[in-house]
Amino acid sequence: MKECMVKLNSIDDVKEFCALTNGARFDVDLLSGRYAVDAKSIMGIFSLDLTKSLKLVIHADGEECEDFMDEVKKFLAD
After folding, report:
1. How confident is the model at residue 30, as a pLDDT?
2. Quick count: other Cβ atoms within 10 Å of Cβ 63?
3. Can you state the percent helix, strand and coil of the chain, rounding each to 5?
4. Which of 2, 21, 22, 37 is most buried, taking the most CB atoms under 10 A from its CB?
């Protein structure tokens, strides 16, 4: 399992991010405060406060996780 912070700044970012997570064969979650949603659910993502960074939780390890991290690196929060 790996955790990092991501920032989704626009509707297009959310659509692209959701498309990437839907391609994953493992579970991916987004957390905002006490709320957690499936990162594969576009409606779930839009229910979060997108003005703040979100915690991305990837339920995978090894090469699979690293490959996914390469795909979402443009969304990583500074």
Report:
1. 98
2. 8
3. 40, 25, 35
4. 21
- CATH for 2-75 is 3.30.1340.10
pLDDT digits (tens, 9 = 90+) for 6-23: 999 999 999 999 999 999
Each residue's pLDDT tens digit, 34-78: 999 999 999 999 999 999 999 999 999 899 999 999 999 999 997
**Cα separation of 56 and 28, whole Å?**
7
List strands edge to edge, sheet with 2-6.
Answer: 2-6, 54-58, 28-32, 35-38
* CA proximity to 70, closest of 12, 24, 13, 14: 24
Q: Residue 6 has which token pair?
A: 């991501």
